[in-house]
Every structure is written in structure tokens, then in C-alpha cells.
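Researcher: If convenient, please comment on what follows.
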Amino acid sequence: MKRPKITNADRPKTQTIEVRDEYNNIKSFPITGELPLTIYVNKKEIVTLMTLGHHPESLVIGYLRNQGFINNLSDLESVHVDWDINSAAVKTVSEIKNFENKLTHKVVTSGCGQGTTFSGVWDDLKNKKINPSRLDQSIIYKLLKLLHDKNEIYRESGAVHGCALCDSENIIDFIEDVGRHNAVDAIAGNMWLNDIDSNNKIFYTTGRLTSEMVIKVAQMNIPYLISRSGITEMGFNVAKETG
């Protein structure tokens, strides 16, 4: 498969600021990075994401994948991230079908910082049927124990969510970002870039399972989605309908 040309423009995970304590002493304190990243596809503005910026190319690719703009990594010619102008310029191999129609209708979701879902994603889910086998409770406990040590940025500066792609034995990928919808998109991008299939994979996320999170994981054809938090009514309905 032909791979797109991509930059490697990751940003530092944290920034250091100076603060005063109760004794008026100046101390250094790490804070989580956050910057806007505007995605352009064939010079057309799509969306601006607020992101940590640690995996920007994967985030852009995964976002376009989960929003239904592209169907394969080979659809992309290049992804160029430039933090001097906070933009990601995407060029596709050919014109995207029904591109303008996809942009006409947006749904503002309940994800962190309010996510956006474009027209067509909901329609695609009608034909989505995922048939998982039984997942043993012991596997979930084992993975949660392994994930305990993965929240590196959260432990250092807080203000992030974490998502992980796992199999029954290992954590394959773990990404933190200021919004968990960004983290899941970045993992989706990494799956394509590293040729990781979704068969029998398990997806873990911090925070609640809203409809947006369930939709994204269903779009990635991952059969299991787990979280320590609760699930919304619509998130449950989407999970039930897609299997």
C-alpha cells in the first residue's frame, strides 16, 4: 500500500511555568500543552481541534478516517503539520466523493470541549455490525492493572484524557490528549500507519462513554470498548445497534 508523505511535528507534552507558593517562593510547575490545529483538506477548511499536539499527524489521519472523509490510508497523498501557523494541510490522491455534502451538516457532540460529527457518519453506522466473542472479566482486570502505569502526562501535569488499544495480553498503543476524542482519533491514525488490524482488539478510554466515543470505536471496527466511568443512553443505544 502506498503511504502518504507526512511530517513529524510533535509538540512537547508539557510547558513549564513559574508559580508562587503560600510562602511567596517562586517554583517551577509543569502544565499540559494545548494548541489549536486547523485541518485543511485540499485547501478547504474542515475543523479546528484543540490538542496537546504530541501526535498531530496521527490525529489528523484518524480524524478524517473516523469522520468518513477517507476510507484508506492510500487515499492520502500527504499530511503536513506546521505549528508556526497551527495548521495541518492534507492533500488527497483524488477528489473526495460528496465532499461538500459532508460539510453541510454538523452535529455538536457532548465530547470534551464539544466534538463535531459530520453528515454521513450516522448513516454509515446503520450497516455496521460487529460480532464480538465473549470477553473474560479476568482479561479486563489484567489490562486495567497494566494501564495503571500509563498515565504519564496526567501524573505530571493533569488536564488530559488517555486512550489505549489493547489485545488480551498487552497494551499496543496508549495516547493522552486534552480531549479523549482526540486520543481515540490519534490511535485510529496510528492503526493505519502501523498496519494494525482491529480483530479482537480492546479499546480503553478514561471518562464517560458518550455516543461520540462509541461511534468512533465502532467506525474503527473494534469489538470491545471499556471505561471506568459510565455510559450515556445514546452511547448505549449505538453500542447495541452496532454490536
User: Anything to note?
Assistant: The longest strand covers residues 44-51. Residues 39 and 45 are 6 Å apart (CA to CA).
